[in-house]
Amino acid sequence: MNVSDVSVSSAMIPCDAADCSDILLYTASYSGPVLSSGLSEPDRANRIVAELSVDELLKSVASPSQASACADRDFFFYGGGWQSWGFGGEVEPGKFPGRYIPVIPQWLQYTRFPGTPPRRVCGRKSASGRLLKGQFIAYLRWDDTYLVLCSSARARGEVLPPVQFYVDRGTRRITVTAYSDGKAWRTGEKMAELSVFTAEGFFALRDAMRSIFGGPGSGKFDGLRFLSGGTEFIKTCGWESWYNHYSDINQALIDKDLDFLGRTGNIIKTCCLDKGRPVVFQVDDGWERALGQWDVCPERFPGGMESLASSIAEKGYIPGLWMAPLIIDWRCDTAREHRDWILRDKDGKPVEAGYGPLWGAKKGPDQPGRSHSYYCLDLSREDVVLYLDSLMDKVINGWGFRYLKLDFLFAGMIYGAYKNGGAGYEWYDRAIKILTKRKVNGRGEPVAYLGCGLPLEASCNEFPLSRIGPDTKEDWDFKVLARVRWEGRPGALPNLLSTLGHAFFDQSVFISDPDVVFLRYENTSLTDTEKELIALTDFMFASQLMHSDDPASFDDATDGVLTRRVAGLYERLSGEEWGLVNVTGKTYILFSRSGNYCGLINLSDKCLTVSRRLVLGRAGKSGDAELSAVVSHVKEDGDRMRAEPHSISVFEIK
């Protein structure tokens, strides 16, 4: 490997996960020119830190038989997104992700890796649609063999630039770049660290992630145990106001939800409250004066936020609150009083963070950018950091909330002309450490943070509890946005794709929050089969159970039937650890680590037909084993299993 101004060292280190190779540790350090200050010129764009060959990597870390079996064969590719709303699934051999048609250009900020990309990578223009792209952790998969590349320095608390992987299917070349825009380097300073290894099977992959990033027993997630009730694996649960009321909330409505949550047979009462588990009650967007003005809206909540948190706690719940502290509406009082707090570009124009019809004026003096844009704070400023610190003190110690959902965090990594210069990833790191520094409140009670819309690599230490996909929705998909190939769109389908694609993150890199389950019959177009699919996917492949149905309108004769069915499935399937493998981009074989269960997930619009022997083989069983249906949407015909669209089927292996 020969990359300009970068020196590379490599070493083989052991991996204590079974069925994994030793880890090839690549370290890239700065070796270019420096000024009299001892620092380089600030980087003007993402820096190339590694150029690798797929086949050379296989020869270095795979066994000879693995390397031979993978040579000259195309592969499934997982690259995830740079932040939690990006697509998190696998791309099939020979295929490439569809490119977003930017009908709303501001949304590119959500999923496009920040900074300025290099002009050419892997011998192509970096913007080429013929390149596969992924961030933080990527893998290439041939059958059960995974070739994994991950940026691993954060596992030891080192703050390095987030990385992006560019993979060329044709040449089997990989270029790795770092988001170092604005960074001035010292000679010998570490720029990137890559851990490269092979894993044989899903559970080997997850175990390797635990070996690198920590997992149950490592202490990494101990600060979340008060949400879980002391179980070995952290499992959290709660209710939130968003997916039924959205931002149209008020004190009377929330008080009613608070009163009925423990009185009706909803899934949170059935599976959590009745079993003595801690439960979060989260108040979502709609309580605040304005985006960026984090004071209570007195017309909606005349009793104030301290009284609201106290009412939640008196009911026995953990008070939860949604905030988006790094973004701001140009029209709010905070923005009017502190125009200098808003991040600018090199021409002095405010940097747009995204698009929101309720969060930005359409045009005029209250909109300095495109219609309905909102903006982000300049995190290099000391007064901004002091403001964020005082805000969190008010919410936690003044008001009494102990579960904070901090949303739209990606905005803190958008590159701009920072007042104090420097690199975005360093300012972001400082800011999130300030936001999450209160692990207990003034009364000694523990506090937890859920990160959402967050840069995955830059946030994995400060936000061990994280959303790992785009928003779900009470509908299967958002068809208009699907047609323009917007991967960050809300919808059950894009949410499930990321929940399943990021399944190996759970209990390793993060305690994964998959968003909410829907079991209601009002205000939804989801079928019972789709609701069951969402509920079981979230339970089996993530670790937070959140619900948003209106507890006051719970109908025992309709909602109750499905709720009791799902609760019974949760009870029967508890205690198992679940794995999966893609058949196609939207279809999966599932299996348990114990070998007691197998099954199929079909997110596609067509029936999935696979061999029964293949399904059992993934669970480590012979093809003639007997199957007992736990939940089935499959028709069997000899060795063929035919799964319905939008369904999950689980079988116990006898």
How many strand elements?
Answer: 35
Helix content: 10-25%
Report the major sheet: 9 strands, parallel
Strand proportion: 25-35%
Provide the structure class: alpha+beta
Global geometry: globular
Low-confidence spans: pLDDT under 50, at least 5 residues?
A: none
Q: Mean pLDDT across all residues, rounded?
A: 96
Work out the radius of gyration.
24 Å
User: Kindly, what is the distance between the CA atoms of the first and last residues, rounded to a whole number of angstroms?
Assistant: 52 Å
Enumerate the strands of the largest sheet in spatial order, edge to edge or round the barrel: 25-24-23-22-18-15-14-27-26
Q: Count up the helices.
A: 17
What does this structure look like?
With 654 residues, the protein is an alpha+beta fold. Helices cover 23% and strands 26% of the residues. The mean pLDDT is 96. The protein has 17 helices and 35 strands. Helix 15 packs parallel to helix 16 (559-573). Strand 9 (137-142) and strand 10 form a beta hairpin. The strands form 8 sheets. A 9-stranded parallel β-sheet has the order 25-24-23-22-18-15-14-27-26.
Would you kindly provide a brief summary of this structure?
With 654 residues, the chain is α+β, with helices and mostly antiparallel strands.
Please describe the structure with a list of short key phrases separated by commas or semicolons.
nine-stranded parallel beta sheet; alpha+beta
